[in-house]
Amino acid sequence: MTEWSEDLKYKTGWFACKVTSGHEMKVANELKKLIQHPKWSQYIFDVFVPTEKTVDKKGKEKLKVLIKENIYIKMVLTQDVYSAIKIEGFRTPLPPKDPSPVPEEQMQGLFRFRND
């Protein structure tokens, strides 16, 4: 199990997280289910995968993941929360040794790619 510094308990915000390539949407959907659970809804608030709407050769609309192997989770990151979000396809919050929230200004730029 990953051990982080004690002050991490007080860090809340959007964390960039590494996931298995091609599983970005699957992991995000599973985490959205976890948000509905009363135990976790006070710690995990939102999940976001930057995507772009595209049209395939058959004219069907699809969502294209823009940042491969990454999702963003708004949460209070504690050891318990880490254990809960460590589902199949999830790898680690970034940076792995001392995760820290993505600055709000940077997230605002990414939100223009929110299509969920």
Automatic annotation (TrEMBL):
Keywords: Transcription, Transcription antitermination, Transcription regulation
PANTHER family the UniProt entry points to: KOW MOTIF FAMILY PROTEIN, EXPRESSED, RHO-INTERACTING TRANSCRIPTION TERMINATION FACTOR NUSG
Biased composition (Pro residues): 93-102
Superkingdom: Bacteria
SUPFAM superfamilies: N-utilization substance G protein NusG, N-terminal domain
Biological process, per Gene Ontology: DNA-templated transcription elongation; transcription antitermination
InterPro entries for the chain: NGN-like_dom, NGN_dom_sf, NusG-like
Keyword match Transcription: yes
Segments forming domain NusG-like N-terminal: 11-114
Pfam families: NusG
Chain positions covered by the region annotation Disordered: 93-116
Protein name: NusG-like N-terminal domain-containing protein
SMART domains: NGN
